[in-house]
């Protein structure tokens, strides 16, 4: 576990096209100073106008990968947060695009813990979000199938911190 006090007062952007998801994530991260957007245009405007310590981006319905590119240009640590794009290809695309974590919406109740892990690692200058992958590895194995990581040897070379072989 981690110390979630690092989230207190952090500026975060939450982007999702589902109102109930936005509201739930907002409640779970109520210790943060938040902006919330439900579509690409609103999120793009916020990213262009305000600084953020963290972005949480849905993939489908909001142009998540395009928003990821914008967040990376500003150096914002980003969590890709998805239900519909929950597959090995989306995982790889998210990580290759600069996301620091790829979290299934099914694990939404733990979003504060994942966000704290990411910000703690970022504060230490570590280019990875702590132990999110280890915590979700068995979930991904069930979801994507045993051995799914073997298809992504290039991802392993680019992202050795994911500890794929452990």
Helix-strand blueprint:
Layout: E1 11-15, H1 19-28, E2 33-37, H2 40-49, E3 54-58, H3 64-73, E4 78-82, H4 88-96, E5 101-104, H5 111-123, H6 132-144, H7 153-158
Parallel strand pairs: 1-2, 1-3, 3-4, 4-5
Q: What this model shows, in words?
A:
Strand 4, helix 4 (88-96) and strand 5 (101-104) form a beta-alpha-beta unit. With 166 residues, the protein is an alpha/beta fold. The protein is globular. The chain has a 5-stranded parallel beta sheet, with helices on both faces. The chain has a single domain, classed as Rossmann fold (3-Layer(aba) Sandwich). It has helices at residues 19-28, 40-49, 64-73, 88-96, 111-123, 132-144, 153-158; strands at 11-15, 33-37, 54-58, 78-82, 101-104.
Termini, distance in Å?
Answer: 19 Å
**Tally of domains:** 1
Largest sheet: 5 strands, parallel
- Cross-sheet strand order for the largest sheet: 2-1-3-4-5
The geometry reads as globular
Give the CATH H-level superfamily: Response regulator
Q: Can you write the helix and strand succession as a string?
A: EHEHEHEHEHHH
What class, by secondary structure content?
A: alpha/beta
Query: What's the architecture, going by CATH?
Result: 3-Layer(aba) Sandwich
Q: Briefly note the CATH topology name.
A: Rossmann fold
Helix content: 40-55%
Total number of helical segments? 7
DSSP E strands, number? 5
As residue ranges, the low-confidence spans are: none
Name of the level-1 CATH class: Alpha Beta
Mean pLDDT: 87
Strand content: 5-15%
Rg for CA atoms: 15 Å
């Amino acid at each position: 576990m981690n110390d979630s006090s690092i989230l207190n007062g952090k500026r975060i952007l939450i982007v999702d096209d589902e109102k109930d998801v936005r509201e739930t994530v907002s409640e779970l991260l109520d210790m943060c100073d938040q902006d919330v957007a439900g579509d690409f245009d609103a999120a793009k405007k916020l990213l262009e106008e305000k600084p953020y310590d963290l972005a949480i981006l849905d993939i489908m319905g909001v142009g998540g990968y395009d928003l990821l590119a914008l967040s990376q240009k500003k150096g914002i640590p980003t969590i890709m947060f998805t239900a519909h794009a929950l597959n090995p290809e989306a995982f790889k695309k998210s990580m290759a695009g600069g996301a620091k974590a790829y979290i299934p919406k099914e694990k939404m109740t733990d979003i504060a813990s994942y966000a704290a892990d990411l910000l703690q690692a970022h504060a230490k200058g570590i280019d990875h979000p702590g132990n999110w992958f280890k915590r979700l590895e068995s979930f991904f194995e069930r979801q994507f199938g045993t051995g799914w990581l073997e298809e992504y040897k290039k991802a392993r070379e680019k992202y050795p911190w994911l500890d794929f072989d452990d």
